[in-house]
Amino acid sequence: MLPQEIIRAKRDGGKLVAGEIAAFIAGLASGTVTEGQAAAFAMAVFFNGMNRDEVVALTLAMRDSGDVLDWSDLPGPVSDKHSTGGVGDNVSLMLAPIVAACGAYVPMISGRGLGHTGGTLDKMDSIPGYVSQPDLALFRKAVVETGAAIIGQTADLAPADRRLYGIRDVTATVESVPLITASILSKKLAAGLKSLVLDVKVGNGAFMEKSRDATALATSLVEVANGAGLKASALITGMNEPLASAAGNAVEVQNAVDFLTGRSRDKRLEDVTLALAAEMLQLAGLASSNQDGFRRAGEALEGGRAAAVFARMVSVLGGPADFIDKPEKYLPKAPVERPVKAQRGGFVTGVATRAIGLAVVELGGGRTRPEDKVDHAVGLTSLLPVGAEVRGGDMLALVHARSEDQADRASAAVLAAYTIGPARSSPDKAILRRVLPRD
Length: 439
Description:
By secondary structure, the protein is an alpha/beta fold. The protein is built from 17 helices and 13 strands. The protein is 46% helix and 15% strand. The radius of gyration is 21 Å and the shape is globular. It starts with a helix and ends with a strand.
């Protein structure tokens, strides 16, 4: 079955059958499908879409391009969460240990940065010694011994998706609902999950800026997951401002450690993290209701059990044993720090969140090509939220840069991203709606 004929069929608006999709994805995994053909296929899907059956077939084909894990020997439920990507979205770093501390097992297979959004895998790579792409034996050891492991795709898990993921990033096909759906779910199905909660972002810092698009994506994810045999639900959460007060890699890890240890917690970040934890616990059968899930998650966080899980996970995967106690000792630091100061007084009424993410990419904290290396030390901290009151000269954010020139450009970008008005604006709700499978 020629790849170009499959591309042609989709280019012309045709519906692909499961065999055609499986053949194309097998070629993508083996290398007989070229990068140009994969890019053409992605663009054809971007413009012409896929129906539910096609997306289920694409998801299963990418899952089956590598190993599929089996956790049936574990004494507790296997669950996970996935975010569609935002700015300052380090939820996974707290969520996995919180849920694991409540009795679930969380084999979290994460991705690298995509477009203007940060990647969980890049954040974990900020930790010296941490093996973010272990072999399956070490992955299993970490999950069994600690309850959670945050890793990237290994060569054996959904290799076809790993290749297509990198191509989408540089061909302007990131926002395709079928491709996003299949990419996310193929990794999760390969991880051997029994339940999955999706965090679908909406707003000016999300890939889906409009509510109807986010709802379509959430619905697609939930329906395709259930169609592929995976129990799933979704929360649609707001991304009209950075979720955490930090954006970058090492700076978001520091923010997560501060959250877990109780040193400091950003309010919106806490709301989203606990809501997702409650959803995961209820879906996994570890909580009798959403309210019960909130209670259990809060107790795991406040009692220090979640922090202990994170510390053990980092150690088992090669990081420092005392990392959670002394993160500043280990995380890389950028040599230049530059405060971005408000030019006038008033209230923060808006943040161009995508511009904040792109500022981090320009600093070197993200990629413009798949092969680009990421500078884990750079980023932004002390980002003020919507509704904050400022006076002229007050700091809106702190830039962490490799050079003075980079700091200049990032400072200008951050200043332009912030809108200061005379009256306080109420921030958008953090949790907008819940999407459940149809009966």
